[in-house]
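Write out this protein's structure.
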Amino acid sequence: MSTAPTGIDPGPVTAWLATRIPELAPPLTFELITGGASNLTFQVSDDNGCRWVLRRPPTGHVLASAHDMAREHRIIAALADTAVPVAPAIGLCQDAAVNGADFYAMGFVEGEIIFDLADGEAYDIGQRRGLAESLVDTLVDLHALTPAAVGLGDLGRTEDYCARQLRRWKRQVDEGSDRDLPLFHQIHTRLVEGIPPQQGAGIVHGDYRLDNCMTGKGGSIAAVLDWELCTLGDVLADLAGMVMWWGDDPDARGRLGDVPTKAEGFGTAGDVVARYAARSDRDLSDIPWYVAFQHWRLAAISEGVRVRYAAGAMGDQERDDDEQSDGIDYLLSGAEAWLTKN
């Protein structure tokens, strides 16, 4: 008999997968891949040792417009023949009778996820700089794509990306939070007043960093993962997200204080910006504003995650509420600090 954690109905899901994977050999084992803080990701293994990946929304307390499985599936399918490496799309299920919510399946990409500082320090020091450069180059390749040329021209509006993001995440906090966050709203006002002019439009991953990619052999990116926040708009938000996640701040707390790229040999966030600048003709002078925006946005996302954990909507995973709140406070302080640099 197939075994499965919370969020998977093994019988119907196995039957659905069998219609799309002819070589499937039940029974299947479904294992929650830890580290995800929004959509749930499961490794699926069959009796022959073959593996796939399944993605579904949280098991409850889902905000409107969030956790769109059809959108994620569409994006990785569209990018299959581009220079951006993605996992092979297998299929999308939108029949709630199968598993209680939409989900999609994709091929398993061989490699490793370098998730935290310990992983970064364990990674071959001779390959760290090359991996950092591959990470930046893959992002440049994504931003160089013309959305319409890969079938994603109607993925979303292209103009006023930052203004739309500021409205979106403020609204989700307003609608979903169970507490007051005055600094969050103060920073929102300052960000709105200083939005830089948008330089064209492209595909924005929305959460691009090393641990949202699969690292292959030889120090290169084998697949970009976690497309749930992808849309069209101002691609410099992605670059700023990498700067925020790079680990240059020695006082960083929570996940930002435990990132793999803090390890010696990956270089600095300045190196990241310099390499991006060398391969792109975009003006990067307003990057501090974008980094402030990313701190604020991550605070908004983290607040939604905190509420979902408190409501028991993240399957079998648990997190300490005080620790999450402390991390959100740090992010808002970081946003303030970066605004003073702009």
